[in-house]
Amino acid sequence: MVTTTTAAGTTTDGPPLGRRVVALFAPYRARLVLIALAILVTAALGIANPFLTQAVFDDALFAPDGPRLGLLGVLVAAMVVIALVSGLIGVGQTYLTTVLGNRVMQGLRDRLFAHLQRMHLGFFTSTKTGVIQSRLDNDVAGVQSVVTETASSILGNVVTVVASVAAMLALSWQLSLVAFVLMPVFIVLQIRVGRVRRRVAASTQASLSDMSAITQESLSVSGVLLAKVFGRQDHEIERYRAENARQTDLQVRQTMTGQSFFAVVQAFFAITPAAVYLVAGYVGTGSGTALLSAGTLVAFTTLQSRLLFPAVQLLRVSLDVQTSLALFQRIFAYLDLVPAVTDPPGARTLDKEHARGSVEFRDVWFRYPASEEDEVTDPEPEVEREPTWALQDLSLLIEPGQLAAVVGPSGAGKTSLSYLVPRLYDVDRGAVSLDGIDVRDLTLASLAQVIGMVTQDTYLFHATIAENLRYAAPDATDAELEAAARAANIHDRIVGFEAGYDTVVGERGYRLSGGEKQRLAIARVILANPRVLILDEATSALDTVSERLVQHALETVMSGRTTIAIAHRLSTVLAADVIFAMDGGRLVEHGTHAELLARGGLYAKLYAEQFGGGQVEARCADGVRFRDGAVLRQEPETDVA
Question: Rounded CA gap, 499 and 239, in Å?
């Protein structure tokens, strides 16, 4: 087994592709047996008709002692019964095959989606959303017809071909040689055409992925807004048009690949009966008496005609399988990705009710995985070049219930620090612990219960306000929703909508303002009731009024919880119990606001740059005004909601 590590994750080579495709049908063995029996019975009944035809000619219509009408009636009745029974079995077989194929596809889609849900954050930051959607939608849809039809088609056609060939050989081996003389050539040509078809199919699906990525990026609310603001609609149209043209060319090429080959095959099968008649005329005794009866010749040509469709179908199915293997390869490539962040064997569960909320970083070193392009150009990055560390030798301790602020210039490593606590990424060296337990030894599910996050980029589903809130607590009652919304200072705004909590917020919550979305996110976290709260730039994009409302809501959710607040705006961290100042991935100083100002280090510099050396007042959400680190006055809160 070969393991390969990329930016997307660790890829483990699985069993051979064909075996993996067959394994998809393993849970449905009983249904497969029923389908196989139906196919065998149908094939046997199909072979019976040519022999009945032979008997009609030789034993009923042209019997040596004259026509035998009684026998003719029996033979014709048998042919009718066989046709009716075959039709009924065919309907049942189609139903079983359709159900089986769609169940297999359902299982494959469920498996792929579940696997993608478990992938670590780095996979999604290094892969376009449209590409992921294409793999889940287009690639799976591309193999659906093969899965739902091919298995039964192959078995049915193989049985029909084998039975027909056996019957033809039994009737006349000489005529069989004429009928099968070019079949080996066709098989060789089919293999070569299949290889070309597989390559074209892979290119076609890659193009579909690119089109999905362009669509997802350009037609999202953010993408459309950006294009309109910068007047880039024509650029986006041309980008889509170019990829669409490429997709059209590939689709045409994929469809036409092998068509000439099939035309030759069909022409061969159409011409062969004439050759059979010619050979039949020469197969006789010296006296000119034919060795083949009229019934035998009719039966043989009937079998030959019956052989045409399944033989061509097998060749076509073979090409379809080659095409589908390219798609299966893409699907299994995702399924073979091993998430970089998983529960270790024997992982412990941290009970939220008993969690204290102590967070500690011990000698932590962390860097983001190299991109796949970097790995190709630089397969040994630690040897070839100095690695770029997001965090370096970071050690800090946050006591239970403390409000800890993390400040620093852009790129200092503040957000990277926040990603390591809930294990969105794992450290490269050192350890991050929660209540003295290395987070890598805890289950991801229990970490999600204990840790909550509110980020600057609030994501809301295109659903109602109530549904967005209940994402954190599916069993929350209406009263609990209202209590959380009141605590987040958003209830009055919600009931101001005509539909109240049943208001649909729109794509990514675009019906709401930035402050309203943030307060909904805070209400959602309140419902989750985490022991540790991480605020990543939660107010940096808001106007002054919205910031005050959000800060007021944050005070409620921070109460009694360990809080890690990351911000560019120092006004959000002035009242912190402890402030950690970071630069270049390192912790350079820590202390209270007053202590850090007195030291005149990085924090004091950031404070001076933002607030003009104290000449500009900084306001906290609780109405406290600061100047040069000193409290000027406490103002009464004003409800501006």
Answer: 40
Query: 581, 583, 585, 565: which is closest to 573 by C-alpha?
Result: 565
Q: Are 45 and 373 in contact (CB under 8 A)?
A: no
Q: Please answer whether residues 298 and 54 qualify as being in contact, where contact means their C-beta atoms are separated by less than 8 angstroms.
A: yes
Computed over every residue of the chain, the mean pLDDT equals 76
Size of the chain, expressed as the number of residues it contains: 641
Considering the domain 3-338 in this protein, what is its CATH number?
1.20.1560.10
User: Who wins on pLDDT, 294 or 428?
Assistant: 428
Interior angle at CA 336, CA 333 and CA 337, nearest 5: 95
Strand ordering across the sheet containing 451-455: 451-455, 532-536, 562-566, 403-407, 578-583, 586-591
Cβ proximity of 336 and 112 under 8 Å: no
What are the residues whose beta carbons fall under 8 Å from the beta carbon of 225, sequence distance 6 or more? Answer: none
DSSP string, 363-408: EEEE-PPPPHHHHHH-S-HHHHS----SEEEEEEEE-TT-EEEEE-
Measured CA distances, 350 to 91, 160, 400, 436, 443 (Å): 56, 62, 15, 11, 8
> Which contacts of 84-90 are long-range, i.e. CB under 8 A and separated by 24 or more positions?
85/45, 86/42, 86/45, 86/46, 89/38, 89/41, 89/42, 89/45, 90/38, 90/42
Helix axes 151-171, 29-55, angle to 10 degrees: 30
- The answer to whether the beta carbons of residues 603 and 581 sit under 8 Å apart is yes
Which of 31-40, 313-322, 598-607 is most confident? 598-607
Residue 315 CA from chain centroid, whole number: 32
Residues 406-431 pLDDT 10s = 998 888 999 899 999 999 899 999 99
* pTM tops 0.90, yes or no: no
pLDDT, tens only, 337-353:
888 888 889 899 988 88
- Fold of the 352-370+387-634 domain: Rossmann fold (3.40.50)
Residue 586 pLDDT exceeds 90: yes
H-state helical runs in 257-293 = 259-282
Q: What is the pLDDT of residue 615?
A: 44
Q: Tokens 């590590």 — which residue?
A: 5
pLDDT digits (tens, 9 = 90+) for 137-152: 777 777 776 676 666 6
10 Å CB burial of residue 48 (0-12, 13-18, 19+) is middle
Between CA 521 and CA 213 the distance in angstroms is 28
pLDDT of residue 7: 45
Edge-to-edge strands, sheet with 337-338: 3-6, 9-12, 337-338
Distance CA 122, CA 112 (A): 18
All structural domains of the chain with their residue ranges: 3-338, 352-370+387-634
